[in-house]
Amino acid sequence: MSTTTARIPRGRQFFANPGPTNIPDSILKAVSAVSIDFNDPAFLTVYDDVVAGLKRILKTQQDVFLYTGSGHAAWEAALVNLFSPGDTLLIIETGHFSESWGKMAKDFGLEVRTLSADWRRGADFAALRAMLAEDKTHTIKAVCAVQNETATGMELSIAETRAAMDAAAHPALLLVDTISSLGSLDFRMDEWGVDAAVGGSQKGLMLPTGMSFTGVSAKAMATHKLSKLPKSYLNWTNMLTRRHKSFIGTVPTSLFYGMRESIRLLEEEGLDAVFARHARLAEAVRRCVRHWSGNNGPSLFCESPDRFSNSVTAVLMPEGHDAEAVRRVALQAFNVSLGGGLNRLGGQVFRIGHLGDLNEPMILGTLATVEASLRVAGVPHAPGGVQAAIEYLAEAARPA
Ligand SMILES: *Cc1c(COP(=O)(O)O)cnc(C)c1O
């Protein structure tokens, strides 16, 4: 007989994945809008408002193209619209997602150089600068950076990436993946000189999966005109001939009603307050994990405190213990869904997503349940990690 009998779950599932994320009730209502002709003037107003709002979130006054497709479609759009066969890209290694973007570029016949980095410490900007300075013939057409490496729970500073490129006086385009950072970590497309900013719907923007987009600079649009990789559905030039200046086919109208609500929620709270909330909840998670690590327990995967991600924390298991066992207990016994380790981190880490529609009780509930799961799974840890999170959050909530 199994000791855990199957339970009928009641109450809400605590969803602590780093994407998709919790969808607020008001967004669920908004996406349930009935079908509407995407050229109906009533929808065009919504459409134009959403594109304008998305530019405020990206902090850009340049072009934005949207796609029916998840983040991978926007990765692909950025590559096929900007490059020609044989062009060279420099990918800053961060983890699974930088590797995947690089692999996609190779699939399209692009040359990929990698700025190698230790996944637990992050890339070295002096090395980036040196690599660019050495490229005297400007063979490197673009630097690709993942702002928030969702697989490792680490942030890559885009301001420092831009500074390294400027210091080397290198004219490469700067392509940035903001898929798990936009709407939870600060992002400034124009100020940081980002030429293509890739984003998706189901992470910080709290929407269902299915829409993605790229902010595109004027410099990138000029490069686009010369690009020779085959493209059709994702071709920006084709899109510009449409009323919507995006979407070759049917526009996903319900996601636009959802995104209008998402932007309203983010701006009602205020972007800076949104970022501060993410920072606060993330710090509570880290204090809890640090406490657990006391007794040879699970520890923070990220070893560079200045690179901690405020949207996801990867927790490294002690030797000989399987992260999947912890995730299984959390889900089956407590109805808490955690993120798993991706590819080569499979079984070694589990991930606590703390981005999107989230508050203190949800974080404390998740941490308490993860601690219970460690106990059930027989994983060593210093008990009482949640207390460290409680103390931090209580201090943060005290009136000034
Ligand atoms: C989720 C994610 C992707 C992939 O996006 P999909 O919407 O799953 O296609 C790419 N990059 C990062 C950093 C991500 O977090």
From TrEMBL:
<protein>
    <submittedName>
        <fullName>Aminotransferase class V-fold PLP-dependent enzyme</fullName>
    </submittedName>
</protein>
<dbReference type="InterPro" id="IPR024169">
    <property type="entry name" value="SP_NH2Trfase/AEP_transaminase"/>
</dbReference>
<dbReference type="InterPro" id="IPR015424">
    <property type="entry name" value="PyrdxlP-dep_Trfase"/>
</dbReference>
<keyword id="KW-0032">Aminotransferase</keyword>
<dbReference type="Pfam" id="PF00266">
    <property type="entry name" value="Aminotran_5"/>
</dbReference>
<comment type="similarity">
    <text>Belongs to the class-V pyridoxal-phosphate-dependent aminotransferase family.</text>
</comment>
<feature type="domain" description="Aminotransferase class V">
    <location>
        <begin position="46"/>
        <end position="291"/>
    </location>
</feature>
<keyword id="KW-0808">Transferase</keyword>
<dbReference type="GO" id="GO:0008483">
    <property type="term" value="F:transaminase activity"/>
</dbReference>
<dbReference type="InterPro" id="IPR015422">
    <property type="entry name" value="PyrdxlP-dep_Trfase_small"/>
</dbReference>
<dbReference type="InterPro" id="IPR000192">
    <property type="entry name" value="Aminotrans_V_dom"/>
</dbReference>
<keyword id="KW-0663">Pyridoxal phosphate</keyword>
<dbReference type="InterPro" id="IPR015421">
    <property type="entry name" value="PyrdxlP-dep_Trfase_major"/>
</dbReference>
